[in-house]
Amino acid sequence: MAATASSYSITMRLYTAPDHGVVGAVATQIAASGGVVTAIDVTESRHDRLVVDVTCSASDASHSEELVAAVAGVEGVTVHKVSDRTFLLHLGGKISVNSKVPLRTRDDLSMAYTPGVGRVSMAIYENPEDVRKLTIKGNSVAVVTDGSAVLGLGNIGPGAAMPVMEGKAALFKRFADIDAWPICLATQDTDEIVRAVEMIAPGFGGINLEDIAAPRCFEIERRLRESLDIPVFHDDQHGTAIVVLAALTNALRCVDKSLETVRIVVSGAGAAGTAIVTLLLAAGAQDVVVVDRDGALSADDSSLSAAHTDLAAATNPRRATGSLQEVLVDADVFVGVSAPNILDAEWIPTMAPKPVVFALANPDPEVDPAEAGKYAAVVASGRSDYPNQINNVLAFPGVFRGLLDAGAEDVTVDMLLRAAKAIADTVSAEELHPAFIIPSVFHPDVTKRVASAISGRES
Prior knowledge:
Layout: E1 5-16, H1 21-32, E2 36-45, E3 50-58, H2 61-72, E4 77-84, H3 85-90, H4 106-112, H5 116-126, H6 131-134, E5 140-145, H7 157-176, E6 179-184, H8 190-200, E7 206-209, H9 216-227, E8 232-234, H10 235-254, E9 263-267, H11 271-283, E10 287-292, E11 295-296, H12 306-314, H13 324-327, E12 333-336, E13 356-359, H14 369-372, E14 378-381, H15 396-406, H16 413-426, H17 446-455
Parallel strand pairs: 5-6, 5-7, 7-8, 9-10, 9-12, 12-13, 13-14
Antiparallel strand pairs: 1-3, 1-4, 2-3, 10-11
Helix pairs in contact: 7-15, 8-9, 10-11, 10-16, 15-17, 16-17
């Protein structure tokens, strides 16, 4: 059976015969169908029937439907209603705006709004640098998308991207107490996106670019960094790169290898792959080969796009050619940020001894982590139901907390390297293990350590 997940969790309201033994039969049927019962509540008990709410998790949406059908087949049970708990959580959105000051009296209003607010506006006019202290700007981030590359769902547009951007804003608040707003733009034109962000920038202390397709995202980030005096961070690139470097640092400690000497194969030459490669090289990696759907990128190939030409020029010193299976031979590390099921687990034994496999495609990885674990010394994925989840939440809250605290105007490669080291060092020598190379996103020290590494201040 595939692993179940809370993201596919449902609650079934059942009308059953007035026999509490039926409840056990329902639980048994769900388990036999591969589901996991997480709660059973008898909400009403009458002489003629029971009303029972059963909550269970499934492996995917179709499995949820199978569980409902299985329960409906239990004698004496009627499925009255089915609620998808993930959709219930999203009803009305996941974030809101709350006032930090009381607004109970005329006196309150006269200070928070007119006429008192006019004095504060003039103070900012006379001393523009005070805008960070006297407004929310000093603790605010715009989460900007055009909806062109949302999660693993593709180009689904700004409206459909909104739940993801809301979630990102909620994570900013939960992990770093930063006020973030989802900005979903109704354009995928590079010039219009750049101009839109430039126009809203005065109200924010930082810009988080999110789920914008490559190669457009590269130019958007470059131009905004040049034109704005606040930091611009593309989380799909730099957040992913930070966490991958942190995890790889600890994975290599587990197998007693060094970044400078290992051979690394990166599958995926998009935004995430490019940023990962760039940061790995900055950290000291010497032998990195990037593979896309057409095979290894090599500087000898004149047919590459401009972005891939630059990537090939910085990598593949041995000018390796061929498919993923071919270039994987004798490699020490595989990092996948590409597509599901492109790596056969049986290729892993052809890698160097004690191989490291990071299969990070979401929601379905390049290779099943359980299968990869039969051959690899260390396995990581983007999934929460396996050990070693590579999750950007480990990076971006602390990165922006540090940037805002320092009043930074830019994000540097050195900052990214320090952030990766801070995450890696959160795992102590006593804790380090092939199944524990990266801390939990709920680790109380991660955000503080990353923020301190970024700002240069003691946490």
